[in-house]
Amino acid sequence: MNLSRYLLPMAALAMMTGYAAAQTPAPSAPAAKPAVTAPAPMAPAGKKTATSSSERTAKSKACSDQADQKGLHGKARKTFRDACKKA
Q: In terms of residue numbers, what domain contains 63?
């Protein structure tokens, strides 16, 4: 049996793989950290008041009930509810 027929190509492959791994480039310098920016400006004080989620839910339900009473569906219902919730 000719053992060198199998071992020689395997040894050559192992050496090439090791050589290729040794040729990896050096790690680059770490990336610079982004500059710290100022926080976004707050909304004007008199524009809107914050409402709790329960208040919003109650208003949304009331607007839905009004839309039901008017028999609105689709785009007309959406438009009505949007206007109702803003009022």
A: 52-87
